[in-house]
Design a protein that fits this description.
With 253 residues, the protein is an alpha/beta fold. Helix 1 packs across helix 8 and helix 3 crosses helix 4. It has eight helices and seven strands. The model has no long low-confidence stretch (mean pLDDT 95). A seven-stranded parallel beta sheet has the order 3-2-1-4-5-6-7, with helices on both faces.
Length: 253
């Protein structure tokens, strides 16, 4: 194999692909030769992101909370890219920062609805084709909140922890039929979401950097290149893993 990281002739669907980590993942997968389909709710952002990536990118508007329409996204992505998805990246999500005692059942349910039920619906829609072809990769974007305790994010932590269980169960169920399932657990990655979280809180910024052995924040492409590796032939014997990409934050003190 001349290039074990080559993704030419593969199609990847990335939810939340128009901005942030999703855009970084799409950009890196395309750089490795994959055709990428950016899925999300905001049409202008998706179009702008697809244009920035270039000829290998297209976009489809989709709301992951519309669970009964998951198969429509897979069909639309197949038409837009010209091939069925070989890679599904469950990246779309919402964040809720709130004390646990103030988090209402509806708010909790809304976070789970997007992350857990949304990812399951799309995985359920994509898997039959992957299993029929005997190949595929389902990648979940988890979080360091699934690895250790963070305050005021009880719903988000529960949702991302559910990803960990889903990855292990799915991997044990489908890996013998050629479909691998993995997750990336990003640390503090420079993004619009992170900048909002740290706005006007320099002390928190310093605490984060103080427990990150590499002494800085990551970039969306750091997650993107990890996604490209896990989706490539180079990772053909890797399934069921939760890969921290966090500058060492999950082991720092």
């Amino acid at each position: 194999m001349s290039n074990p990281f080559d993704l030419t002739d593969q199609c990847a669907v990335i939810t939340g692909g128009g901005t942030g980590l999703g855009f970084g993942i799409a950009r890196c997968l395309a750089a490795c030769g994959a055709r990428v389909v950016l899925a999300g709710r905001r049409e202008p952002k998706l179009a702008e992101a697809a244009e920035a990536i270039g000829a290998l990118a297209c976009h489809v508007r989709h709301d992951v909370t519309e669970h009964d329409r998951a198969a429509e996204l897979i069909d639309a992505a197949t038409r837009a890219s010209g091939c069925p998805p070989d890679i599904l990246v469950n990246n779309a999500g919402v964040h809720l920062k709130k004390p646990a005692v103030d988090t209402t059942p509806d708010e909790f349910r809304g976070v789970l609805d997007t992350h857990v039920l949304g990812a399951h619906a799309l995985t359920r829609a994509a898997l039959p084709g992957m299993l029929e072809r005997g190949r595929g990769h389902v990648l979940f974007i988890a979080s360091m909140a699934a690895l250790f305790g963070l305050p005021q994010v009880v719903a988000y932590s529960a949702a991302k922890s559910a990803y960990v269980g889903m990855v292990r169960s799915l991997a044990s169920e489908v890996s013998g039929r050629g479909v691998r399932v993995n997750a990336i657990a990003p640390g503090w990655i420079d993004s619009e979401m992170m900048r909002r979280a740290l706005a006007d809180d320099p002390a928190r910024r310093e605490r984060i950097l103080g427990r990150t052995p590499m002494g800085g924040f990551g970039q969306p492409d750091d997650i993107g290149w990890a996604a490209a590796f896990l989706s490539s032939p180079a990772a053909r014997f890797i399934t069921g893993v939760i890969l921290p990409v966090d500058g060492g934050a999950s082991i720092g003190f």
